[in-house]
Design goal:
Keywords: Isomerase, Rotamase. The protein has 302 residues and is an alpha/beta fold. The chain has helices at 19-22, 54-71, 76-81, 110-121, 126-133, 155-163, 197-204, 207-212, 221-226, 240-243, 247-250, 265-276, 288-295, and strands spanning 96-105, 144-149, 169-174, 177-188, 191-195, 214-217, 233-234, 257-260, 281-285.
């Protein structure tokens, strides 16, 4: 049984007490992951995408902080609180993602490890055991690590997890101690690509592309009033709390989805988040509408 929480999103958690997030399904990634077994994505260094006003910048960074903690972009906070990071620092893909929960005990607690493994094998929920005995911060969410792919975990854990049968509790040892882990589900790995404005512009000339593709503009309404690309639906990043919970009802995760903003930073964050929601093919428009205007001079710049 997965442990539910009012802070859960599927498949991630926002560190927010906002009631709207409590309406979302609970299954997923732990908000206090050590980095647990997840590799730390590179932080966005170019925030020039934000509006020049101090008010907008403050609002953007406030949202970004919450958003990043949910997706693992800003897990430095949790690393500083933990005794170690399970990050391997590399990513090699692998074709599938697995949903993993685990518990961690000290290296010299082998007696406890064997007792917990026996209890899990006899039918006790690993999530309940993790909540009570695990020394990983993920214990607060029943040991849930969320969806991971090859290259995101230390080798020993990765080998055990990707060779484990579904729902079978297995053990492995890393430099952090002994783990009991359980793979709850698996799915095809999603794809996030960057598309150049020139390529997108060429695609936009094809009526069939406009019928099949899902086009999302995450800029604010006042920006869209200045410049817009026909066909894009506007879902402002600052209004994420309104549309985020319903994104899979507004868009089909199986279809190609293109995300646009001013310079490409906000759209990248949303594109990465869409991946966590099960969107199979997501494209971030490199350089945003600012670069798209170079290809299509009819679009104003600002």
């Amino acid at each position: 049984m997965l442990r539910a929480s009012s802070l859960h999103l599927s498949p991630l958690v926002f560190v927010s007490q906002s009631p709207i997030f409590a309406l979302l399904p609970a299954l997923t990634i732990h908000r206090n992951l050590h980095t647990s077994l997840l590799r730390k994505p590179k932080p966005l260094s170019d925030l020039s995408d934000t509006h020049s006003s101090l008010t907008y910048r403050h609002s953007y960074h406030t949202f970004s902080s919450k958003f990043n903690r949910a997706t693992g972009m800003a897990d430095q906070l949790f690393i500083s609180k933990a005794t170690a990071s399970f990050s391997s620092g590399s990513s090699s893909g692998g074709g599938k993602e697995i949903l993993v929960q685990h518990l961690l005990v000290k290296e010299d607690d082998q007696k406890l490890l064997l007792e917990l493994q026996k209890r899990a094998t006899e039918g006790e929920d690993l999530s309940d055991l993790a909540a009570e005995y695990s020394i990983c911060p993920s214990k607060e969410e029943g040991g849930m690590l969320g969806w991971v792919r090859k290259g995101q975990m230390v080798p020993e854990f990765e080998e055990a997890a990707f060779n484990a049968s579904l729902n079978k509790v297995v053990r492995c040892k890393t430099k952090f101690g002994w783990h009991l882990l359980q793979v709850l589900s698996e799915r095809e790995e999603s794809v996030l690509e960057h598309i150049q404005p020139s390529e997108l512009h060429e695609k936009m000339q094809d009526p069939s592309f406009l019928e099949e593709a899902q086009l999302i503009d995450v800029r604010e309404p006042h920006e869209v009033d200045i410049a817009s690309v026909p066909g894009f639906k506007v879902f402002p990043l600052r209004q994420f709390g309104n549309w985020g919970p319903e994104v899979t009802t507004k868009f089909d995760p199986q279809k190609d989805t293109y995300v646009l903003c001013h310079h490409g930073s906000r759209s990248l964050q949303v594109a990465q988040w869409l991946q966590t929601q099960g969107f199979k093919r997501v494209f971030n428009v490199s350089g945003g509408i600012h670069q798209y205007a170079v290809v299509d001079p009819s679009i104003p710049t600002y």
